[in-house]
Amino acid sequence: MSPASKSGVTGPVSSAYDDLVGRGAVSDDPLQRDALRVLDRIASGLGAVGGQRKGLVALFARRETIKGAYLVGDVGRGKTMLMDLFFGAVPIAEKRRVHFHEFMSEVHEGIIAFRAKAKGKSESADPIAAVTKPLVKSLRLLCLDEFHVHDITNAMLLQRLFEKLFEGGVTLVATSNVVPDRLYENGLNRQLFLPFITLLKANTELVELDGPTDYRRLKFEGQEVYFFGPEADAGMDRLWERVTGGQGGTPAEVRLGTRRLKVPRAAMGAARFDFADLCEKPLGAFDYLKLAHAFDTLFIDHVPQLDRTRSDASKRLILLIDTLYDRGVKLAASFAAPLEDLGQDDKTRFEFARTVSRLIEMQSTDYLNAPRKPEE
């Protein structure tokens, strides 16, 4: 009998967790079990509301707010894994998962677009209401990864934004490294931000994952992250299985302004691409930064030797590695040549020397053990 069965927890999220534990993909953790009870409650509640018949019953049920959750803990305590399991287990279509930074960028873009319209220039215009109206209409569940507040623009916006969302029946589930009471700590005019903290605490259940084990570090402990030669694909597959807890991964997308970057495989905060997907397409610094926001680990298959016929691809790889390095994103990759022989293009030789130096550092124990850096 599984630990969940012994404790009476049989909800959809805990069942998915039991499967991972049973396959040896993750270690059973008591604090994660506590979080599962909260996530099962939310998933079951949303499923019950979503399953009601259409018509007036569904109309009024939509206004029923299911209290959400705020998962907080240090890096590597399983927040991303639990969010993965939860989001997959919630049996409704009206759900969205997005990085907090990206979500707030979308909100600001929506406000700017509204104010550019004739109706947005009126003194009585309410840009927050205009931005939240389509969200409330299309969402029952909003999952935000890496919730944090560090600038006054977002701090002053969040109170009214989430008032509208919660009033519209949107359930929030968020992950963060910071407890609500420490959000925007020491920020300018923080007293104006405090009502949002009260609102957030009233609409989410605090779930603390403050155990001593850094599971993310353990995934990389003693592991090679770069692969060369004929066994490279097999090595990448083994590491992917370890990092994702045995999950194959599913296709995903990263929003790049008005565009979308297709992610061939994503699971447990990791994404896997072929080199051509990232460096032989017209991507730039903004795109790579968005990718670094969305994932804490990146797998890149089949990095070729980069000669003068691949100058553009070489420049993109340099930019990509710089972005991942600056953000502290973990990298696994397979290469067609040793690192010191990788860059053979005279146009990028100097810049590529720095890239090789960073690649060497990015496979070090210190780099792999360090947490991902917050956005500036």
From TrEMBL:
Signal peptide residues on this chain, from the entry's feature table = none
GO molecular function terms noted in the UniProt entry: ATP binding; ATP hydrolysis activity
Top-level taxon: Bacteria
One Pfam family name from the record?
A: AFG1_ATPase
Query: Which protein are we looking at?
Result: AFG1 family ATPase
Kindly indicate whether the keyword Oxidoreductase belongs to this entry: no
What is the organism lineage in this UniProt record?
Bacteria, Pseudomonadati, Pseudomonadota, Alphaproteobacteria, Hyphomicrobiales
Listed A to Z, the keywords are: ATP-binding, Nucleotide-binding
Q: Which InterPro entries match?
A: ATPase_AFG1-like, P-loop_NTPase
Q: Which GO terms describe its cellular component?
A: cytoplasm
